[in-house]
């Protein structure tokens, strides 16, 4: 069946502005004469319209096209749609620096090849492919939704993994699957954590986990999750981003770790509300200190000069790891304890006895009992134990 344009309802620019004006309780908004400011206003108006349409259950997907201005206008509203809702922009900058437009979403940018100024032999092919791809996404999503309704899984579990924590992830992943959970694994390199937070904010993930080299966690996790009314819980085990934040690595969290999803709107890299959703919802929270023995940098030559004489492990040509010191581990403990002591949620802190990563073991490059011992002792001293925090 083929549809014509007459089969679709068009929404005018003025209708978007009126809808936006009513939502913010202002008089009818008039677009500024300045083009850049006007793009910003229309982007907010479109975002409000799309969110309302999504809440009303009438959005199958979002598709658009544009240059730098059009892509900027569309990208923020499109990102406000939950993961899985098809979102595609045919853009003149799709092969350039796209992180500001895509961020941690599943927004697809398709190169327009030629400028967006009419139909020609090239644009006709590109736009036709874009339409076909978008239609496939919409149909595929509807089919997946129908399948998921029949699966009856307990919930979706997000898991972050580092190379030095893979053995534990593999064990826990298998255990969770046997228990009936779906698992999503993210690489804990900053971007992976942000992407997972977005899914938690959207309700796409009911449980998320940060893993380290600790093998007793599967049983602990399952028992804690199943003891609560809802199948919700967090295992924040690979907390290495704290080390990058405190010391200055390339994969940091912010001062906000453990308080993230408090912020509504755009996703910031571990802003001042990092993991706030965990505390806000008072869900079971198991935390450990995975990979706090390292700070991540780029190639060895890119490690700051003041760190070059420190113990550095070359992970690969692009990634180097710096061993953390006694003083730094004291700071990590203080940072984490400060966050946990402000929480009213149920927390279980698991401290490993045989190192905090695969590199922190006898005969391995980051084995340093004094530094690791300082971290564990400081946490035991600083964390205020009570009925809900153990």
Summary?
By secondary structure, the chain is an alpha/beta fold. It has twelve helices and twelve strands. A hairpin with a 5-residue loop joins β10 and β11.
Provide a descriptive summary of the structure in words.
This protein folds into two domains: 5-147, Uncharacterised protein family UPF0261, NN domain (Rossmann fold, 3-Layer(aba) Sandwich); 153-382, 3-Layer(aba) Sandwich (Rossmann fold). The strands form three sheets. Strands 5-4-6-7-8-12 form a six-stranded parallel sheet, with helices on both faces. Strands 1-2-3 form a three-stranded parallel sheet, with helices on both faces. Helices cover 40% and strands 14% of the residues. It starts with 12 loop residues before the first helix and ends in an 8-residue tail after the last helix. α6 links the parallel β4 and β5. It is built from twelve helices and twelve strands. It is an alpha/beta fold and 390 residues long. Pfam families: UPF0261, UPF0261_C.
Number of helices: 12
Overall number of domains: 2
- The helix content, as a percent range, equals 40-55%
Average pLDDT over all residues? 79
CATH architecture of the largest domain: 3-Layer(aba) Sandwich
Cα(first) to Cα(last) distance is 61 Å
Morphology call: elongated
- Assign the CATH topology of the largest domain: Rossmann fold
In CATH, what is the class of the largest domain? Alpha Beta
| Secondary structure tally: strands | 12
Q: Which regions contain 5 or more consecutive residues with pLDDT less than 50?
A: 210-232, 259-272
Query: Radius of gyration over alpha carbons?
Result: 24 Å
Structural class: alpha/beta
Order of helices and strands: HHEHEHEHEHEHEHEHHEEEEHEH
InterPro entries: Tobamovirus_resist_UPF0261 (IPR051353), UPF0261 (IPR008322), UPF0261_C (IPR056778), UPF0261_N (IPR044122)
Domain UPF0261: 11-139, 154-208, 260-384
């Amino acid at each position: 069946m083929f549809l014509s344009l007459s089969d679709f309802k068009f929404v005018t620019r003025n209708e978007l502005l009126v809808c936006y004006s009513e939502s913010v309780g202002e008089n009818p908004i008039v677009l500024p004469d300045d083009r850049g400011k006007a793009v910003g206003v229309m982007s907010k108006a479109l975002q409000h319209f799309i969110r309302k349409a999504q809440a009303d259950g009438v959005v199958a997907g979002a598709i658009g096209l544009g240059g730098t201005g059009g892509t900027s206008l569309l990208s923020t509203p499109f990102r406000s749609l939950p993961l899985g809702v098809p979102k595609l922009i045919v853009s003149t900058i799709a092969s350039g620096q796209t992180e500001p437009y895509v961020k941690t979403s599943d927004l697809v940018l398709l190169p327009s090849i030629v400028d967006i100024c009419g139909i020609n032999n090239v644009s006709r092919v590109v736009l036709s492919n874009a339409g076909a791809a978008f239609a496939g996404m919409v149909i595929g999503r509807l089919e997946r939704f129908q399948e998921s309704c029949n699966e009856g899984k307990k919930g979706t579990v997000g898991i972050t993994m580092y190379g030095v924590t893979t053995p534990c992830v593999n064990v826990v992943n298998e255990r969770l699957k046997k228990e009936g959970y779906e698992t999503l694994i993210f690489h804990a390199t900053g971007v992976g954590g942000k992407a997972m937070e977005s899914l938690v904010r959207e309700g796409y993930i009911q449980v998320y986990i940060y893993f380290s080299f600790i093998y007793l966690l599967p049983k602990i996790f399952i028992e804690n999750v199943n003891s609560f009314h809802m199948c919700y819980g967090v295992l924040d085990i690979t907390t290495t981003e704290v080390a990058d934040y405190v010391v200055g690595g390339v994969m940091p969290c912010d001062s906000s770790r453990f308080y993230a999803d408090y912020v509504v709107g755009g996703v910031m890299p571990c802003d001042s509300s990092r993991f706030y959703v965990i505390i806000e919802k008072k869900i079971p929270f198991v935390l450990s200190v995975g990979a706090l023995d390292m700070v991540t940098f780029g190639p060895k030559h890119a490690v700051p000069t003041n760190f070059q004489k420190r113990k550095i492990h070359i992970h690969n040509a692009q990634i180097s790891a710096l061993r953390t010191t006694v003083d730094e581990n004291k700071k990590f403990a203080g940072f984490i304890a400060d966050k946990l002591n402000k929480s009213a949620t149920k927390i279980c802190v698991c401290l490993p006895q045989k190192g905090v990563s695969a590199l922190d073991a006898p005969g391995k490059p980051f084995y340093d009992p004094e530094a690791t011992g300082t971290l564990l002792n400081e946490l035991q001293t600083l964390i205020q134990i009570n009925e809900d925090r153990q």
